[in-house]
Structure formats: structure tokens, C-alpha cells
Design goal:
With about 230 residues, the protein is α+β, with helices and mostly antiparallel strands. It has 3 helices and 13 strands; from the N terminus they run ββββααββαβββββββ. The strands form 4 sheets. A 4-stranded antiparallel beta sheet has the order 1-4-3-2, with no helix packed on it. A hairpin with a 5-residue loop joins strand 5 and strand 6. Helix 1 packs across helix 3 and helix 2 packs across helix 3. The chain starts with a strand and ends with a strand.
Length: about 230
């Protein structure tokens, strides 16, 4: 793996070009040889592929043309950025799959209708504590725009594998943790307990990433919070 120093011509690079993969690590921009990994065919990997195939088939066989047109209009009317922060465009199918992959992962029904407003949702913040004895994370009430008393205000939580104290970046390996769903009839109560699928020790970093979906069906940005596991 080699470090890369960009010139005034190239500001950033991500992804593969020929036999080289560009990215960014803790020390800055990096480039490495593009080595095709073996396919472990893990259960989680197989599940993700099955969901993608299911949603693609659903798009072509279950949605009527008016619904597909609405998704295309939403995608065209929303500003998108790629990994290096430049303007990009995505298809209506990609927007449909992007939202519904999250919903299916959380055990929710597939949403056929495109968001009724263009644009993206906001990005709530939150904090939590991580108890290494019980393996439980206690989630404090998230900030706006998440609203616990509004139905279809949803926050999906993903937990990363624990890392050693002092590491600045969370592990790239994460699993779905829990859905926090607003409800105008019975709002969730906080702090909310979530049981980690990863064991962790006192003093380790525990990171949770949240993705917000607003009542219009729009997805917000990722927000990641890291705490040090400690016995209360």
C-alpha cells in the first residue's frame, strides 16, 4: 500500500482505476493494488445479496409505471454526492433500493411510494453508554429532526466491532443493532436499551452509527458516536 500526494490537478480519488484502488485512511490518501478477494459467502453477505435481488425484482414486477416514474422524479430532483463529495446522479431504481434495503433490514415493509418531498432528511445526534458487563448500550434520546412522538420518524442503529482505546476511526465492520421508531400513540422511552451482538471490554471504544429516515421517506446522513466502555 502506497501513500499518495495529490497535485493541483487531482484533488481526491476513490475506487478502482485499472489495477489500483484509491481511498483514504487515518494518515491521508492511499493507493493499493486491486486484489480480488475470495468470496466467503457468509450468511450476512448472502442475505444482503438476496435483499438486493428481491428489491430489483420488486421494482420491475410489483411497482406500476406511475410509481417508478415518481421514484425517477425524486432521484432527479434531489442533489446527490459521490464518495469524494462531487455532484452525482442516481437512478430511480437506485433510490428505491437505497431506502428499502434499510427498511427490510429493520424488519419493515417495502415502501412502494417515492418520498413526497425531494432532498434528504436531516441528521440527528445522540449519545449512549456501553456496559461491558451486560453488553448493553443505553441510548439517550436523539436530537431533532428525530421526533419520538411522530410516526414514521425512524432511526436505524448499527454497531461497529469494538476497537482499542486511542484508535481514532471506528471499525469498518458493523452490524444492524436496533430500530428506534417514533409513534404518535406510544412514543419510545429513553434511555433505550440495545444489546450489542459484539462483546466488548472495559476501556475499549464502542461506536454506533445512526441513519435517519424522516416521515417523508427521505434518508439522512450517517452520524457516528464513539464512547469508551465502562461499568456504571
Amino acid at each position: 500500500m502506497a501513500n499518495v500526494k495529490f497535485s493541483a490537478i487531482v484533488a481526491d480519488a476513490r475506487g478502482a482505476i485499472g489495477g489500483v484502488v484509491f481511498g483514504r485512511g487515518g494518515g491521508g490518501a492511499i493507493a493499493r493494488t486491486n486484489v480480488k478477494p475470495t468470496n466467503p459467502r457468509s450468511s450476512r453477505q448472502s442475505t444482503c445479496r438476496a435483499v438486493m435481488a428481491q428489491l430489483t425484482q420488486y421494482w420491475s414486477s410489483k411497482l406500476i409505471e406511475a410509481e417508478r416514474t415518481a421514484w425517477r422524479a425524486y432521484a432527479a430532483g434531489t442533489s446527490w454526492t459521490n464518495k469524494v463529495g462531487t455532484a452525482a446522479s442516481i437512478s430511480g431504481l437506485a433510490a428505491f433500493v437505497r431506502l428499502n434495503t434499510l427498511l427490510v433490514q429493520a424488519g419493515l415493509a417495502i415502501e412502494k411510494d417515492a418520498p413526497t418531498m425531494t432532498g434528504h432528511a436531516g441528521q440527528p445526534t445522540f449519545t449512549f453508554t456501553a456496559n461491558p458487563t451486560s453488553g448493553t448500550c443505553m441510548i439517550a434520546e436523539p436530537s431533532l429532526p428525530f421526533e419520538k412522538a411522530v410516526t414514521d420518524s425512524r432511526l436505524l442503529l448499527y454497531i461497529h466491532t469494538p476497537t482499542l482505546a486511542g484508535r481514532l476511526r471506528p471499525s469498518g465492520n458493523k452490524r444492524y443493532l436496533q430500530l428506534i421508531a417514533g409513534n404518535s400513540g406510544t412514543p419510545p422511552t429513553f434511555p433505550l436499551a440495545a444489546n450489542s451482538p459484539f462483546p466488548y471490554l472495559a476501556g475499549q471504544n464502542v461506536s454506533i452509527t445512526a441513519i435517519f429516515i424522516d416521515p417523508y421517506g427521505r434518508i439522512g446522513g450517517d452520524y457516528t458516536k464513539t464512547v469508551v466502555a465502562a461499568v456504571p
